[in-house]
Design a protein that fits this description.
Glutaredoxin; 300 residues; elongated; alpha+beta; 2 domains
């Protein structure tokens, strides 16, 4: 079924959209003007948001602290919309996202990206309700926050992400998706479905992390994180990311060769400086001899 307490789109396996934005679809987001949620228009609304700057939004985390969505910029961000009164689809979708990102944290590092779940049923998805929901789903990741917008901000926020929902007597029908946002705050990809896999969420993240380049302040930890991203490949048999040791050995060999060449050229530079110093000393010694010394006869 596609309609019910939660609308399930792409239920069997989920799918990713990261193409050029489609034409905007009106009256599909925010839940105010649409009386029934149509699968085609809901998907089109999500796709049309790709490339969009998500803008600035004020929210409250599950501990009651106010924050801005822009505070997550600088790293890729995965966003999901939920409502805490959902007893089946939202919990299962959240757990599927948790399973998907656990492997990504091991592969890319837990500090390489952020995750947020936003409660759209306000004022009922309060910080306390979001905190209880996170605990019920066993979410303990330090890079995952559960956020609550103000009731007046919900429509603007959901529209920015292309998230569609409508109220029903039993709760809400809503599109099931995870949004991948780049470090600059633009939507990079939409992942639809409640059975999210590591590849569906991980591939857009890896694209963003690989494109991020080397940080201006080069540190050992940043180099390690960069190598982790470059040497991670998806294993379809285990639906997880793993290290490609052949790439690691190639990089290690390249680094070893680079260091060896540095030592070689440093040695050549020292030898050249030493030869120049000896030559200068010889010239200086020859210049200090007087003409008389040079013409004096040898006494035997």
């Amino acid at each position: 079924m596609l309609m019910g307490v939660c609308l399930c789109l792409g239920l069997a396996s989920g799918y990713v959209w990261a193409a050029a934005p489609a034409a905007p679809v009106s009256n599909t987001t925010g839940g105010s003007a649409v009386q029934a949620l149509d699968e085609t228009t809901a998907l089109a609304a999500g796709r049309s948001a790709i490339g969009r700057d998500i803008g600035e939004h004020s929210l409250i985390d599950s501990n009651g602290r106010a924050l801005r969505l822009s505070s997550y910029r600088g790293k890729p961000l995965v966003v999901s919309f939920i409502y805490t009164g959902c007893f089946q689809i939202c919990p299962s979708g959240t757990k599927a996202l948790d399973e998907a990102v656990k492997g990504l944290e091991k592969a890319f590092g837990p500090d390489s990206f952020h995750i947020v779940s936003i409660g759209f049923n306000q004022p009922f998805d309060s910080p306390a309700a979001m905190r209880a929901f996170a605990a019920q789903q066993g979410i303990t990741a330090r890079n995952w926050d559960f956020l609550s917008p103000s009731p007046a901000a919900v429509d603007k926020l959901t529209h920015a992400f292309g998230f569609s929902y409508v109220p029903t007597p039993a709760g809400f029908d809503h599109v099931l998706m995870a949004t991948v946002v780049n470090a600059e705050g633009r939507i990079h990809a939409q992942v639809f479905g409640d059975r999210l896999t590591a590849s569906q969420v991980g591939e857009p993240l890896r694209q963003l992390l690989r494109a991020s380049g080397v940080p201006p302040e080069l540190t050992l930890s940043s180099v390690i994180e960069r190598v982790r991203v470059l040497c991670t490949v998806y294993d379809p048999e285990t639906d997880s990311y793993r290290y490609d040791f052949s790439l690691i050995f190639t990089i290690a060999g390249g680094i070893t060769f680079f260091i060896a060449m540095l030592f070689f050229f440093a040695g050549e530079w020292r030898d050249r400086r030493r030869r120049q110093r000896v030559l200068r000393q010889s010239v200086a010694a020859a210049a200090t001899k007087t003409p008389l010394d040079a013409a004096a006869p040898v006494v035997r």
